[in-house]
Known about the structure:
Keywords: Membrane, Transmembrane, Transmembrane helix. This protein is α+β, with helices and mostly antiparallel strands. It is built from 19 helices and ten strands. It has helices spanning about 1-30, 35-55, 60-90, 105-115, 120, 135-165, 170-195, 200-225, 235, 240-245, 265-270, 270-275, 335-350, 360-375, 390-395, 395-415, 440-455, 480-500, 510-515; strands at about 245-250, 255-260, 295-305, 310-325, 325-335, 380-385, 420-425, 430-435, 465-475, 505. The protein has a five-stranded antiparallel beta sheet. A hairpin with a 5-residue loop joins strand 3 and strand 4 (about 310-325). Residues about 125-135 have low confidence and may be disordered.
Amino acid sequence: MGGFLTNLALHIIPGAMLGWLSAEVFLRNPLHRLNRLASILFALMALQFGASFLASFFPEADAAKLVNGLLIVPTCVLGFLMMLFVRQLGGQTGKPPASYLDIALVVPFVLIVLVVSQPNVYGAYAKYTVALNPEEGVRAGSIILAATVWLYASAVWLIGWKAARNAADSTGSQHVQAGLGIFAGAVVTLTAMVAGLSGYSAAHAHLIGLYAMLLFAFFIRRAILYYGLMPSVMEKYRVLFELSPFGVLLLDAGGSIREANPVVKLLLGLPPAELIGKPVSMFLDRGERLPLGGVGSAMMEVGMVDIAGVSRRMTVHLSEVTAEGERMYCVVLQDETGRKKAEEEIWYLAYHDALTGVGNRLYFQETISSLLQNGTEGALLLLDLDRFKAVNDRHGHQAGDALLREIALKLRECTPLSGMLFRLGGDEFAVVLPDVGGAWEPAATAENLLAGLTGHRGAISPDSPVTVSIGIAQWPAHGSDTTALLHAADIAMYKSKEQGRNRYSVYAQAFAGAGA
């Protein structure tokens, strides 16, 4: 029983490990030809361990057929694939092996033909007393195959090493790992041959040979996982990842940062190495969240805070991806702070008077139109600066502009918090008071405006020829559209002019009837 369990452990455990390695390497990057080839190699190695275990328990007649079909022929195929793998591996250094070496790739197929066509010489048959044929044919075939595989692999490795040893990146370390795999496999294979030739059990010698392949697989796995010899999906797009003009984060299913490109440092204030492992939620503004889980892709605008506490608006492109067999999220961050600021500046220039900084005619028209459509009540105060042209003529336009800025500043101070101030053009201003039902509030506002402009310490000095006339109209009583409301306020304003200026008048139907 103990012998059975030992035999089981020596075969099944390495076979299971190789099966797991096969799946791991394939899932790391299914599209890369080296990953696919390594996966096939590891799977065949696992099959060899399983077939060797079964052959030791089958009746000898059946075991011989099993050895031919699942050990000898697949071993030849495996030898060819190992040489092909090393050849493509060597090509990664940029210096392909010499073409005359490729003649060695034919050897495994020649041996397969010999095993199939002359099984009495090169195969395993029941007339022998052990499951594996110890006769000269099998031994010669095994020696030829092993020598061909490891000599070819060594020659290709040496050619690649000449190009890789002085490389500035990790190519040299990668190549060393592959070389260790070839060396270890060759040494253990040589040990198996010596054991077989010295009269040691052929089955045990074959098992030692299998462990040579296991060592080769171990070092190749190290080269893949720790030295990037065969890039993963992320490594394949590493250049795009690193050089992207946008910040790119790779999150795990729990929202922790697994990868970050250099641009993220400009956005979040931390270098990529210090971001790894931190939850992305710590950089989200209060109340913001990313819809992780069950989302294929999404685009949204969120507020994010860098490590210094500076808030930014970001457009986030969120995509669910599968990398190396794991569900992850790729987050592309585009800083919208500059764009938002530019949009705000464009909006400001479009809707504000360049000289005084108050709302312009366009802003006034859109505002009053919106208020009229809401169905609320309000008041419009129209202000006109009488004889302002005299200031420009006497003191120049610079003095006139300075006076306009001072008047706008004073009007802004005297306008209620709920009101809005606009310059309609030239020397004409307007104050809009939304949600005003009675007549007293517009009148009180007009008195404050007059006091701020013409009173003690007003914007207009007492010796200035400039005066102020204000007309007041309310909606919807005096007009239900912009044109009618402006017309009513204009009539009231001219009534103030007629009555001596520096005063205000509230629109009345009698004014219109008088043709004022």
